[in-house]
Design brief:
The chain is built from 36 helices and three strands. A hairpin with a 2-residue loop joins strand 1 and strand 2. The protein is an all-alpha fold and 613 residues long. Helix 20 runs parallel beside helix 22, helix 21 runs parallel beside helix 23 and helix 31 crosses helix 32.
Amino acid sequence: MKLYKYINDIQNKIGNDFFEINKVDILNDIRNIIETNNYDNLLKIISDENFYEVLTSLYYDLLHEDISKTFLASLWYKKLISFSKELQSEFLNLILSKDVNTFIILACFEDFMSYKFDLSVEFFVNWFSKLGKFVENDYCAYLFYNGITPFSKSNKELAFKILQELLNKEYSEITYNLISIILGTLRTLNSKEIKELDKRLKNADNVNRQKYYYTSLVNTYCERDTDIEEIDKVLAEILSKNKNIESEAFFIAYRLFISSKKEDIKNFIIQWLLDNTNKNLTDLSKYYCVMFIQCAIDNEQYIDNANKILINIQPINNENKGTYETLSFVLTKILEKYPNKFNKLFSNLLIKNNLSELLNEEYFIDTFVGNIDKIFFTELFISKNVNQRYFSQEIYINNSDKINFENDILATINDKLFELICKEILLKINYGNIFAKFIIDFNDCINKVKNKKLRTFLDTEISHQCINFPQGCYETLKNYNPACDLIKNCLKKVENYFDIINKYKNCPINSFTFSSCNDAVEKGLIKQYKEIMEGIERNSTLMALVNKIELLYGDKHAHRTNIGISESETYTHLEHSIEIPILSFLNPISEIFKTVEINNEILNLRKEIGDAK
């Protein structure tokens, strides 16, 4: 059989195109083995130590074949029962070995778990717990949990004993998930023991036991037809109980929506969420709502209601990184799939939440900037709502080169709001080129300013930043021909300033001395430092072989050695990768006071602008 040759090549690590060349024959061999249920000859050629490696390689090549999971799961099970019970335990535990691709093996876990097993309760409790722990933070955790339902159906008595053991274990997310799946599945089998257990869990004082009961209902509802009245009753019952189990109602709603094929149940879930979502929900409840929305928006008929639900649950706590990560995918999908609905949704979200955590979600931000609606963005930027301004300003600061404004909308801005926007964005600017871009973008607004106090502020600030960033700000604005009169006057003053400075910049200055009460201490430290350095130089083998050189420079440079100062020379090339803000660097204390002052002015302006919050 070609299949045997292929497997031998895998075990012997022979790399070739044997599978591709003989694919049809190999698939026929596999179908024949499945139909006859004759795996014995095949298992004889696969060594124990190579089994999981062979299983992995087979999965990769059979990935798109319908028979792959059936065949691989059966092969795995036949191999398992060929061992004694003791060796079976060891064999199953091997899938957690670093040499085994556990995630690929779990691809056929659901089919594998549909067989009958004869291992102990203790083994499965430990094995399930270890597997759950191994995949708990991975996207393929669902592969593991999907296998628990067929296991519970095929091993009813064993599953019930495992359930009892798990109920005695300390609460954990893995235990919680296992209990809810097993309990929910066994309930569909109409077991008397489960009915009695349900009563105890439902009425327990322990909140975790109540959670086990209610969460397990999801798995029950997914396995059998359930009427809307029963679902409504259970959801209302959960919300009337302890706040700590509130999230179970939203988990059930989310899971039922994605699992049910009945349109009336889906519509009921949407209406229930519309009626019961609000800003006071627990963090976990809001997470399940976002998960629901992620699934619902695949269908255009649900998008409007999904958007309303998303607005209802705002604000979302910034500490809930997982919720924001999912929200970023939700908003990206809405932006790409329903761009005409995105602007209204996002504007309303910002009214209730500043969405600052979304600024860390690169995938969403890249999509947002790449598909930016100029009119919409301009409206956000000059909005009287502080959240809308905050978010758009952060986007602008980090992507100013990719963003342009709608001038007709900018023309509607009044002096008071323009002053507020100028001062808000000024506190966020760290680079001269961004400030210059802002001044250029708002050139027409600056030209229209009537308020003398604001004109004086703009005059002072533009001049200050041009001096602070001579390359990024001054040079950029100097080359901007349509600059308004106020900007031009600033540039003239700055030009005069630099003309004066340039007269002195080539003077080599050895030191500055500022008299202060610390002079004596500083001179003492300098003397001590100099003596130490001279001692090091005298005793250094390296320093005996080289000349000490100091570099003095402005537009020209000279070398000073023990012989004297060389002739000055002009630089042939000068390049900087970053510009240090000169004034901020020289006088940081003044910058701090300036920031505090502007911040206070911003608070006062927000109060003056009636709709700003």
